[in-house]
Write a structure and sequence with these properties.
Bound molecules: histidyl-adenosine monophosphate
Strand order of the largest sheet: 1-5-6-11-10-9-7-8
Shape: elongated
Helix content: 25-40%
Strand content: 15-25%
Number of helices: 15
Radius of gyration: 28 Å
């Protein structure tokens, strides 16, 4: 559960502000749900056979002996909230963000407390919503400068197709159970579809000879997947991946993940799909649902900040004894006329030379200097800190004007 320090969070803030503008343009609105939910919510949604519920939940009994868990993901809570408000029959375009908790083995890109930004479109049947969400994923990657990524996509059919493929896969694998790795043997018992996700080469070789998913899904589902992929092949690397089943039980229909080679073993920085049965499963009315979640720590690792505008910084330098009410009034006025600029007040005394050195080190573009003479005459020195930059004497009114228009 890592601590996040200012140098980490600066990238996060820029990322978040870019995302806000995208959500705004898609007319998608924020929802916040609690970090704690009843454990039952996750066993009934993410699924009892999933690793997330089986091994990774942080659960405890509260004072009333009810089992509660820290949320491992956000979709189940969003559906619970909408059911509780009895709004399953309305349409919702929602986004959320915050920490999620999974008791996983920590490694690069995998933490026990991590953060997701998720999007859920509720009440939209298979069709335009899939296109809209893939478009949103592309927009996000473009706006934050991620160009080297692959979208893996698959269609899991409806519940019936999923079930009959599952049965056929189980009958095929059972006679070979001793050839499977221990982990895959356990998966075969608890959730046979997860065997498709196996990283074992021998399992993958065996699976090639077994039943294939595309033979179980309907022609309509197949052509929907083909058309969806076809619409984006000119814009990004998007590939059908028959082995993509995803680790949460609630999916039916389209599922997708976005991966980057730059991330190492944990290469997925975004995952999602359709989960039309979840509302009913949780005791609500029928409600179509599709969404995705971004792993913030992972996307931050690969995003480039080159073309993200860094805010302008101005050093506020008051050498000697002059730090008092009057100079602070000037700083207050500057901040209130233009708060897009960082006014770097060093909060320390010290010589002019050492404060200027510090302004350069802190990447300030300009410095405002108020020495003894300026202080007496109600003036400031405005100094351009770029190489060969000039300096000029301004009245306090003029500096406000200059700062406003910077
Ligand atoms: P997920 O694939 O389990 O899906 O998680 C989404 C993303 O969260 C992953 O692609 C990954 O980037 C990040 N992530 C997951 N576990 C960790 C971890 N331990 N450390 C760091 N990052 C991690 C879901 O959670 C679904 N609720 C997504 C969804 C929304 N499906 C439909 N709507």
């Amino acid at each position: 559960m890592p601590d996040l320090f200012p140098e980490d969070l600066e990238k996060w803030h820029i990322f978040e502000s870019k995302l806000l503008s995208i959500f705004h343009s898609f007319d998608t609105h924020e929802i916040r749900t609690p970090l704690l939910e009843s454990t039952e919510l996750f066993s009934r949604s993410v699924g009892n056979s999933s690793d997330i519920v089986n091994k990774e939940l942080y659960s405890f009994l509260d004072r009333n002996k009810e089992s509660l868990s820290l949320r491992p993901e956000g979709s189940a809570s969003v559906i619970r909230a909408i059911i509780q408000r009895k709004q399953e029959q309305e349409k919702h375009k929602l986004w959320y963000q915050g920490p999620m908790f999974r008791y996983e083995r920590p490694q690069r890109g995998r933490f026990r407390q991590f953060h997701q930004v998720g999007v859920e479109y509720l009440g939209f049947e298979e069709g335009i919503a899939e296109y809209e969400l893939i478009s949103m994923v592309l927009q996000i990657n473009k706006l934050i400068g991620i160009s080297d990524f692959t979208i893996k996509i698959n269609h899991l059919g409806d519940e019936l197709a999923k079930q009959s493929f599952c049965n056929s896969l189980t009958s095929f694998l059972k006679p070979h159970i001793n050839e499977l790795h221990e982990k895959d043997q356990a998966r075969l018992k608890s959730n046979p579809l997860r065997v498709l996700d196996s990283k074992e080469e021998s399992t993958q070789a065996l699976l090639k000879k077994g039943p294939q998913f595309q033979d179980f899904i309907s022609d309509a589902s197949k052509s929907f997947l083909q058309n969806l992929v076809g619409a984006y092949t000119d814009y990004c690397d998007i590939q059908i991946d028959q082995s993509l089943v995803r680790g949460l039980d609630y999916y039916t229909g389209i599922v997708f993940e976005t991966v980057s080679k730059e991330l190492g073993a944990q290469d997925a920085f975004l995952g999602g799909g359709r989960y039309d049965n979840l509302s009913k499963q949780l005791g609500g009315k029928d409600m179509h649902a599709i969404g995705f979640a971004i792993g913030v720590e992972r996307i931050i690792e690969i995003l480039t900040l080159e073309h993200l505008n860094q805010p302008l910084k101005v050093g506020f330098i008051v050498p000697g004894e002059q730090i008092n009410k009057k100079t602070y009034k000037i700083a207050d006025d500057l901040r209130s006329v233009n708060n897009n600029i960082i006014l770097d007040t060093f909060l320390s005394e010290g010589s002019l030379k050492s404060q200027l050195r510090r302004a350069n080190k802190n990447n300030c573009s300009y410095a405002i200097i108020i020495g003894d003479d300026e202080f007496k005459n109600d003036q400031v020195i405005w100094k351009d800190l770029s190489e060969g930059g000039e300096q000029e004497l301004l009245t306090s009114k003029e500096v406000i004007e200059k700062y406003t228009n910077l």
